[in-house]
Design a protein that fits this description.
The chain is of the alpha/beta class. It has nine helices and 13 strands. The chain is 28% helix and 26% strand. Pfam families: APP1_cat.
């Protein structure tokens, strides 16, 4: 998918570029979450790309997928009265964790700054942690159709499974916060943050992947690291929801095995059929927690009593 997008981007973007007067040197994206004890920020600094904010949807989406990461940029993360300085890595990514809560400001030494609204997660008895692609949003990950689905996506046409909004809204109504843990690139944060409410789905922190050589080679690393960070800071149990398309069953099983008592249950949407669904069932049996595998997400509600 990334190779196809790159070729299209390079061939089309050179035809006509939108003109921006006094364009900023960098674009700054910030996502994350806070608990009652700490604030966790994921920051992406890219060279300015005029296509990200204008032009055809296909070029905007490719620009989001293939950011021009700015390495070695100084970043100041401020939460309340505390601040720390970090430097972006080769992919333009940086992380900040501050053991405090409050208003957030992230600024660059070059002058750009943002004041993001970082969602706060309460100390709930259950936190629902959900994948996005093929769990919430209809994508077809791993299929050729997923490329066209992504490239033509807009807030108005990005489709969600119809069984998700009632289920996730019922979780939110019961006081169970939602966290969306996805391998989608961090540059899609603003787009996905608009898509969820547009489909009537309860919002929550978006924990997306910084795309660099390391995370591309090890696609499970982002989810494993994020789950470990959430577990270290949130005292309640987790309901883990994913699908059979990629590695959610493998990641969730390993996490449940390494964190006894932390996982209330694992719910997997079957989008593959056999033999993948049979292999997933065999694997999840070793997790040691209640498990549901179903094409209908309404069945997942039985895991939360």
């Amino acid at each position: 998918m990334i190779r196809a997008a790159a070729l299209l981007y390079l061939s089309v973007a050179t035809l006509s570029l939108p003109v921006a007067l006094a364009a900023p040197a960098h674009e700054l994206s910030v996502a994350g979450w806070a608990s009652a004890r700490a604030t966790h920020l994921s920051i992406q600094v890219d060279a300015y790309d005029a296509w990200r904010g204008s032009g055809p949807a296909v070029l905007q989406n490719i620009a989001r997928l293939l950011p021009q990461g700015a390495a070695g940029i100084g970043v100041v993360c401020q939460v309340g009265e505390q601040s720390i300085d970090v430097i972006t890595d080769q992919g333009g990514h940086a992380r900040c964790e501050l053991k405090t809560t409050g208003a957030v400001k992230v600024s660059l030494v070059s002058g750009e700054e943002v004041r993001p609204n970082i969602p706060s997660l309460p100390d709930a008895p259950v936190t629902v942690i959900s994948d996005l692609d093929d769990t919430v949003l209809i994508t077809g990950a791993g299929k050729r159709s997923s490329v066209s689905t992504f490239l033509g996506a807009t807030v108005s046409n990005r489709a969600a499974f119809p069984d998700i909004a009632p289920l996730y809204n019922s979780f939110a109504a019961r006081g169970y916060p939602l966290v969306y843990l996805s391998n989608s690139p961090l540059g899609l944060s603003d787009f996905l943050r608009s898509v969820l409410p547009a489909r009537g789905i309860a919002n929550g922190p978006l924990l997306l992947r910084a795309l660099d050589a390391q995370t591309l080679l090890h696609s499970t690393q982002h989810k494993i690291q994020s789950l470990n960070e959430l577990a270290a800071d949130l005292p309640g149990q987790f309901l883990l929801i994913g699908d059979t398309a990629q590695k959610d069953p493998e990641v969730y099983t390993a996490f449940a095995q390494s964190h006894p008592g932390k996982v209330l249950g694992i719910a997997i949407r079957d989008v593959s059929g056999p033999p993948r669904s049979q292999d997933v069932a065999t694997l999840l049996y070793t997790a040691g927690v209640p498990v549901i595998i179903s094409a209908d997400a309404a069945a997942f509600a039985s895991l939360v009593r």
